[in-house]
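Dissemination and training. As part of the outreach component of the grant, students in the summer workshop were shown how a complex can be specified as a set of sequence lines and then modelled as a single object. The example used during the hands-on session is reproduced here so that future cohorts can follow it. Participants entered these lines:
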Amino acid sequence: MTYFNQFHKEASERKMRKIAESKLSPTNSVDAVNYMKRNVEIASKM
Amino acid sequence: MENVFDLGVPGPSGNENDTYFSDDCVYKVNNLLNCGGLLRLLDKVKIHNEIFPDTFYQLHAFTGFDGRTVMPVLKQDFVKDAEPTPQIAIDTYMAALGFDRLEQTGRYANDTYTVWDLVPRNVLRDRDGDIFVVDAEIKRNE
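and obtained this result:
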């Protein structure tokens, strides 16, 4: 993996760790879809 | 794959994707409308994974209509507890990656790539302020 700069490397690695950790507590699929739909609504008002 | 509903619970659809959710992953059935072809889509995925490795895509399957169309199914990890990002924060994030903001909202470029459609619906921000680009249009500069 080639990173653009140190920020890119550190931020990407931190976020990858977060996502890996978040998978230890699985999300209910219906709840996740409702969350995604809610985000679409929020974004449409921004 | 024959039945896309095997992918999981249907989620919101966009211009180019129908989404399905299961096992903390989002499956995107891509109709190739934005990129115009399979090879272009695969190139876009490759670049996405270089620029935004935290929201990388995997090619999961193909679906479509027998003898007529093919639609790739992309798989991406779900980003939990993150909401749409204000445009100014997207601008700041892309600047930190070394991209220049172009005239059109949500469009950025460096020497190698141009990235666009980075608008709040495609970019999520978590409680810590970390920014996740979950959908982007990308091309190599000519």
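The interface with chain B takes residues 1-2, 4-5, 7-8, 11-12, 14-16, 18-19, 22-23, 26-27, 29-30, 32-33, 36-37, 39-40, 42-44, 46 of chain A (CB under 8 Å). Students were then asked to discuss how this feature might be tested experimentally.
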